[in-house]
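A quick aside before the break. I want you to see a complete sequence-to-structure record at least once, exactly as it would be stored in a machine-readable document. Don't worry about memorizing anything.
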Amino acid sequence: MTSIALFGAGGKMGYRLSLNLQHSEYTVKHVEVSEAGRDRLQKDLGIECCPGNAALKDADVVILAVPDTVIGKVAADIVPELKPGTMVITLDPAAAFAGHLPKNTDLAYFVTHPCHPDIFNDETTLEAKRDYFGGLHAQQHIVNALMQGPEDQYLVGEKIAKTIYAPVGRSHRVTVEQMALLEPGLSETVCASLLTVMREAMDEVVRRGVEKQVARDFLLGHMNILSAVIFDEIDGQFSDACNKAIVNGIPMIFKENWMQVFEPEAIAESVRRIT
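That is the input. The structure line, written in tokens, reads:
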């Protein structure tokens, strides 16, 4: 059996991984520094944690389910203890992109991240429909990058990724640099910002006299159909009035050079702030 040392096992992501790994083919040793996290694992899942050095003994894979701000420190502490050929997995590209993983060519570095359940899906159960994060009931796609290591290690990392994020649909292979374009670039800098502005716009409509439930229903319904057209989910087109509103609205809302957020220096600065 492949032996996994899971650091941060009782945290927000770590707990999700602990749950999905619990009945998998892997032998897992759980490491959690917080008392609350250890208690949660023991009470909810019956999992007992162990010290980091005990978890690293004979570990084939180390998963760092810890905050981006401490991955560099944690990695620096554990890498000298790892045997050649060990795989280190991070759940986000930030630390890897920023160069916070120690230089050690004897190890494989693998980065994986979930896409989260698609807004266009075929889920039929209430549990799956309300599994917005993924990793429980709703199918989600994932992206993976083998940062360094033998090519056959990619399949090893991908198999683990499909386990910790299950149920998984498509599994995409990208580079670490491409993953950084996706997050924080596309998903957080752009998508989360635009959605925040959309919520602020809804609140402004409410402030101007529209009942909140009316504004919410109207906005979310239009988000659904407009998204279906924009992302080619259906063969449709906008009305002339909508197209005119878009032409008028874009220069009023966005800076002309807004796509600079995807330039390498902008991505690097965003990652620097994160880590």
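Two observations worth writing down. The longest strand covers residues 140-148. The chain has a mean pLDDT of 97. We'll return to this after the break.
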